[in-house]
Design a protein that fits this description.
By secondary structure, the chain is an alpha+beta fold. The chain is 34% helix and 22% strand. Strand 11 and strand 12 form a beta hairpin. The structure holds adenosine-5'-diphosphate and magnesium ion.
């Protein structure tokens, strides 16, 4: 152990997000990793579960969820952030946390909200700050910054807060898509994750339904030209110096990498990806540049497309709290790069403390 007392890690998971279940799986894996023999000498863990309605549960119940003794879905619905209580964290013991490890995928967490809250505790956290998290979550702003830096991306259009009940507005959107993009197109809510709210649209008649679906999650909508691609991912860890992991590829049997294929089917993860070393080098450089551009550090997974016909690299997105489940790409990439999951979580804490 480096200097004295064990560090207490505050693991925050669950959350008022459509990626709630994934977060629980991620937290289970990280919790186990901190409880590996070697890590037990350096760390203790306190768990903080936020249920689907946004209520924080105490650490005893939270830990029981992580070890499978308590079913999270049985926690009863309460008011979301009880308005009558000024301190909604009342009763939650968080004074003795040395380092926070927020594992809240998606909205109300990964988007920077948890990072803002943690700032008030004046304790470090694993991951990046408010700005990087918010930009990494918002596809429209992320892409705007990438295009400013001329990083390679697919062609896209943005429609923000349009009134889809207005016939003229609908026609204008459809016309613009037909004029500027080729089918298929992907219609995406600007803020979401795990492919939720995304549709692959093959012709004009499917556009409106896809817009409605995206708008249910976010009224700011991104439309991208859909290409035939391989999906390539690269892990990042570090602070003043960013390190890149091995490069991985994910193969799936579905038409695109939708929610079901992400979590319920037998994907094939290939690490290292079978691509030539020049392209790998370029991917790693873009991964670092894109993280720096958005002020992302700590840890992240940068996702790329490799266009099948041209072998062209296109930057897709950065995930600032990547999946940490047993089958997730991020821990696998680091394992292939020489860091077992127990070492990885310890390293992430060291990075947050600048050790
Ligand atoms: N422009 C595109 N061309 C081809 N496939 C795409 C495109 N955009 C998205 N997809 C498919 O949809 C998946 C999810 O899109 P993505 O933007 O990564 O959303 P999320 O943040 O939910 O993961 C991608 O992994 C890919 O399979
Ligand atoms: Mg993605």
């Amino acid at each position: 152990m480096i200097g004295g007392k064990k560090k207490c890690i505050g693991l925050i998971f669950g959350g008022h997000s459509n990626e709630h279940e994934v977060s629980i799986s991620s937290a289970k894996t990280v919790f186990q990793a901190f409880n590996a023999q070697k890590n037990k000498e350096r760390f203790t863990v306190k768990a903080f579960y936020i249920n689907k309605y946004g209520d924080w549960l105490d650490s005893d119940i939270s830990e029981k969820i992580l070890i499978g003794e308590f079913k999270y879905y049985k926690t009863k619905k309460q008011k979301i952030f009880n308005q009558e209580k000024i301190n909604f964290l009342e009763g939650i013991e968080f004074q003795n946390i040395d380092v926070w490890f927020p594992l809240l995928h998606g909205i109300n967490g990964e988007d920077g909200s948890i990072h803002g809250l943690i700032r008030f505790t004046r304790k470090p956290l694993v991951g990046c700050g408010i700005i990087g998290s918010a930009l990494g979550m918002d596809k429209i702003l992320m892409k705007t910054i990438f295009s400013n830096l001329k990083l390679p991306q697919v062609n896209y259009l943005v429609f923000q807060n349009e009134d889809l009940n207005d016939k003229q507005v609908k026609n204008k959107i459809i016309d613009e898509i037909l004029k500027k993009l080729k089918f298929p197109v992907f219609v995406k809510p600007s803020n979401s994750g795990s492919s939720l709210g995304i549709s692959k649209v093959k012709n004009e008649s499917e556009i409106l339904l896809a817009l409605e679906k995206a708008r249910e999650i976010d009224p700011r909508i991104l439309i991208e030209e859909g290409l035939e691609v391989r999906e390539i991912e690269c892990g990042i860890i570090g602070n003043s110096k960013l390190l890149t992991s091995e490069i991985g590829e994910v193969n799936y049997s579905s038409e695109w990498y939708d929610y079901d294929s992400k979590y319920h089917s037998d994907n094939k993860i290939i690490i290292p990806a079978a691509i030539d070393s020049k392209i790998k080098k370029e991917i790693k450089e873009i991964a670092i540049r894109s993280c720096r551009a958005l002020n992302i550090f700590g840890f992240a997974r940068v996702d790329f497309f490799l266009e099948k016909s041209s072998n062209k690299i296109l930057l897709n997105e950065i995930n600032t709290i990547p999946g940490f489940t047993k089958n997730s790409m991020f821990p696998m990439l680091w394992e292939a790069s020489g860091l077992k999951i127990e070492q990885l979580v310890a390293k992430l804490v060291d990075i947050s403390l600048d050790l």
